[in-house]
Write a structure and sequence with these properties.
Length: 432
């Protein structure tokens, strides 16, 4: 759901690193810090080392599960052969995937189908997502069509934890609350490694030409020396092996409508509109931007006429390698209000999130579009079929969006310095 959270920036460099550092310290300032006291796990990847200490006291079951899989002391079921494996580390040689603000590991088949076995009851560690470097065991998501016995009987299904899938986050991100159990804290030196891996994967929509993998996870207990860097796993042995990006069966149409010129305090976005493919969405956007469409003020409940909706609004949500998203309502950056109308999604075959610069409506579920829009900065097929694409921004605009996406932000992904939409205008010429 885009309004509350879309489930996934600039090329890596000094600017992005500074943004992440500022946001990390701002997010944790004033908060009570609970440090881990358990063993350390050293995750050697094909792009560098990630070192995390575990919260053995706060999440003993989750930590024991992870350590057992990492050092091979826990049996696991090979998802490819359905055979039980003894004495071998589950994670060694497994590919990584990029996710918003981090990376995901622990899936030997892809699409979260290659886990180590059955999920287990979710443990409440009491730890949140207000710090960068969180190591998180993911909440179990049953495959489509799977219904637990308790759910089938009408009872609320218990929350479960995946047997092996985990996240490492390089930024404080409270949008992950409810998505897993924090069971470790990675050190500052590891964060640039996580950022680099995440960028390399998300910029290719998780279809890299060469696998980015975990070579080995070592468990280091108190008093033990740190291990030497693990040898690289041959690329052909990495599982799951990267597959090429999907090729669209239907070519994407090109936008032939007017061009929206979105002037912001950090640059201008120029986006041509899909007036033929998304006529309702485009008309709504133009009407709100020009003040020709009425809308309800959520604070006063008064219907507004002749007032330009977007002028003065800000971007309330920015995530590198993903997107920038405007505030939904005047004076309501949370985006939880109601401006008096909704309209249906316009999903067009071939018009998908296969490139950066897609201009699309955010929503809270099917057919709940109103005014909030986002601009992507990377291809992201996970969004296909769920959001109305109504424009395509040009290459220069994508660079502006990347810059906005990389500004310092808090743990709610809100910019620490407001980025404002000054005005939106449109070209008069429409290509027939």
């Amino acid at each position: 759901m885009l309004k509350a959270s879309i489930a996934v920036g600039l090329a890596l460099g000094v600017g992005m690193g500074q943004a992440h550092t500022v946001a990390r310290h701002a997010a944790s300032a004033g908060a009570k810090v609970v440090e881990p006291t358990g063993p350390t796990v050293v995750i050697d990847t094909s792009m560098g080392r990630i070192t995390c200490r575990l919260y053995e006291k706060q999440a003993p079951v989750t930590v024991a599960n992870f350590v057992g899989l990492a050092d091979g002391s826990k049996d696991w079921k090979d998802p490819a052969t359905d055979q039980v494996v003894h004495g071998k580390g589950f994670y060694d040689g497994t590919g990584l995937a990029g996710t918003s603000d981090g990376i995901l590991g622990g899936d030997r088949l892809g699409r979260l189908l290659g886990t180590a076995g059955a999920p287990f009851p979710m443990e409440k560690s009491g730890l949140g997502f207000e710090r960068a470097g969180r190591l998180v065991m993911a909440k179990y998501k049953p495959p489509v069509g799977e219904v637990s016995g308790s759910a089938a009987a009408g009872a609320k299904a218990p929350e479960l934890t995946s047997s092996s899938v985990f996240y490492v986050l390089d930024h404080a991100d409270k949008e992950y609350e409810g998505r897993g159990t924090v069971f470790g804290q990675c050190d500052e030196a590891s964060l640039p490694v996580v950022t680099a891996i995440s960028h390399a994967l998300l910029s290719t929509d998780n279809h890299p030409t060469e696998a980015i993998a975990i070579n080995h996870i070592a468990v280091v207990r108190e008093g033990e020396a740190m291990p030497a860097v693990a040898a690289a796993v041959p690329l052909e042995q990495v599982t799951p092996h990267p597959v090429p990006a999907p090729v669209a069966a239907i070519p994407s149409p090109e936008p032939m409508g007017r061009t929206a010129v979105i002037e912001t305090t950090m640059g201008t976005l120029s986006c041509r509109l899909f007036e033929k493919e998304a006529p309702v969405g485009v008309a709504n956007f133009i009407g709100l931007a020009e003040g020709t469409k009425a809308w309800k003020n959520p604070a006063t409940h008064v219907e507004m006429h002749g007032k330009k909706f977007y002028d003065g609004l800000s971007f309330r949500r920015v995530i590198p390698d993903f997107m920038i998203q405007n505030a939904d309502l005047p004076g309501d950056p949370s985006g939880d209000g109601d401006i008096g109308f909704h309209f249906e999604n316009e999903i067009v075959p071939g018009l998908v999130f296969d490139r950066p610069g897609r201009l699309a409506y955010a929503n809270a579920g099917p057919n709940t579009n109103e005014s909030e829009f986002f601009v992507t900065v990377a291809p992201n097929h996970r969004l296909d079929g769920n959001y109305t694409i109504f424009g395509q921004c040009d290459e220069a605009s994508v660079k502006v969006a990347e810059t906005i996406a990389a500004v310092p932000r808090d743990e709610h992904n809100r910019p620490l310095k407001t980025v404002v939409i000054r005005r939106i205008t449109f070209t008069d010429l429409m290509t027939k």
